[in-house]
Amino acid sequence: MATDRLTAVDAQMFWMSAKIPNDTFLLYAFDGVPADLDVAIDELIAQARNSVDLSRRVHDESRLLYPEWVPAEVDRDRFTIYPSGGWSDCLSAVVALVDHQLDARVMPWRIHLFVGVTDVPGIAGPATVAVLQITHALGGGGRTCAPAAVMFGRRAVVEPIRPRYGHPALLIRRSIEAAKAHRELLRDTEAGRVPAPAAPRPPRRTNASPAGLRSMRTLVFDRAELAGATVTVAALSAISAALAGQLSALGEDTSTLGAEVTMTKPGHRRAYNHFGTVGIGLHPNLAAPQRRTTIAAELADRRARAAHPAMRASDRAFAATPAPLLRWGVSQFDPSVRPAAVTGNTVVSSVNCGPADFAFGGRPVRMAAAFPGLSPMVGLTHCVTGVGNTIAISVFAAESAVGDVDEYLERLGFAFS
User: Fold this and answer.
1) Residues 6+ apart with CB under 8 A from 294
2) Which of 415, 406, 359, 12 is nearest to 216 (CA)?
3) DSSP state of 201
4) pLDDT tens, position by position, 238-283
5) Could you say which of 215, 275, 370, 409 is the most buried, measured as most Cβ atoms within 10 Å of its Cβ?
6) How far is CA 132 from the centre of its chain?
7) 236-245, pLDDT tens digit by residue?
């Protein structure tokens, strides 16, 4: 198979976007406004043209083969400039952009520029906010933040993808190997050598199909304010307290609350979408210190299970799935079906953008945020995004999930204090 074809998992993400919109939105706030906006945009175009990730698009015309990555020109049409306004206006505009998903066959990414934005957290004067909207076929925020930073001037080499392909003729053999490895996983689990899988959880109102007003909000902290635990653990613990309080006030049982947490797979990156999701209990009935310890232990258990050879064997088998079979499987997916149990009652992702060593038109980056999309089974998502010493906790919520989102954000801010 040619190495310029999408891997099975990336093709699945591309095809699934027709069922559930899944563009990634990465937001960067820069301190000030470039002296010459046109020159600043030209610099981004030049950097993007030199990026393997940002100078390609999807070509999908064969029903028998996986789509291809083909060269794509980067021009001014990738950039849209919006009038100045406040921070809340900017976030409202990003919510509206979610309804305008990209066609990765034409334009796999674009940047929305909000110039002269006031009241951006951590920035005293007017700011420039750049929102990168990018197809999930090129990965989630954890992957796309690397080429984005280089586009904005970071001097670094982006970790290359080492694609895992599998000829369809290998499917039977790899499936047999995966089945054998899975039986070994069951034996190791029964013997206590591998942690058991997370139990599914009953759905709550946050798992209802999103309805009503949709809102994006952010809380911004200095990394030192979240001492005492990893940033992700601190965020999960705070989300536990805030979500339990909000749902309890709305008459929901919160004793079994859990989160669906994205987790990078071990080993070399074999696809743009080199991650899985795991269920983590939120334990709202525990005191904060014990809750953090318990959440950290569950995350460690999920990593240990993900490192079992059975998981890699399963990935190898999936990589050999014939394109027509996977395409047919995606076409059969019905997003309206309501399962009796869910992995989590909200989604929590983490994106580490690294040091604050990039800029836009000479204006330094001060904050980054990412907004995982809503889906038919998730009306509330969070992302923990770091750049330099600044941590942003972003919230994307439907009114049907939490009611008053500002009330929920107030609870979340209090839970961090």
Assistant:
1) 281, 283, 286
2) 406
3) B
4) 999 999 999 999 999 999 999 999 999 998 899 999 999 999 999 9
5) 370
6) 13
7) 999 999 999 9
pLDDT recorded at residue 190: 97
Integer Cα distance of 25 and 218 in angstroms = 14
Task: Report if pTM > 0.85.
Answer: yes
Helix (H) / strand (E) element for 58: namely strand 56-59
As given in the structure block, the two tokens for residue 70 are 């083909």
- Residue 240 CA to residue 391 CA, distance in Å, equals 18
Supply the DSSP symbol for 5: B
3-state secondary structure 128-144: EEEEEEECHHHCCHHHH
- Find, among 25, 97, 28, the residue nearest to 390 by Cα: 28
| Element at 78 (helix H, strand E) | none
Strands laid side by side in the 390-398 sheet: 214-222, 390-398, 380-387, 346-352, 258-264, 275-281
**CA neighbor of 369 nearest in space, from 225, 264, 235:** 235
Closest C-alpha to 407, from 399, 251, 209: 399
Measure the CA–CA gap between 278 and 298, rounded to whole angstroms. Answer: 10
CA–CA separation, 206 vs 209, rounded Å?
A: 8
The residue behind tokens 């209990």 is 281
pLDDT digits (tens, 9 = 90+) for 296-343: 999 999 999 999 999 999 999 999 999 999 999 999 999 999 999 999
Q: Using the 8-state DSSP alphabet, how is residue 377 labeled?
A: T
Render 303-344 in DSSP notation, one character per residue: HHHHTSHHHHHHHHHHHT--HHHHHHHHHH--TT---SSBS-
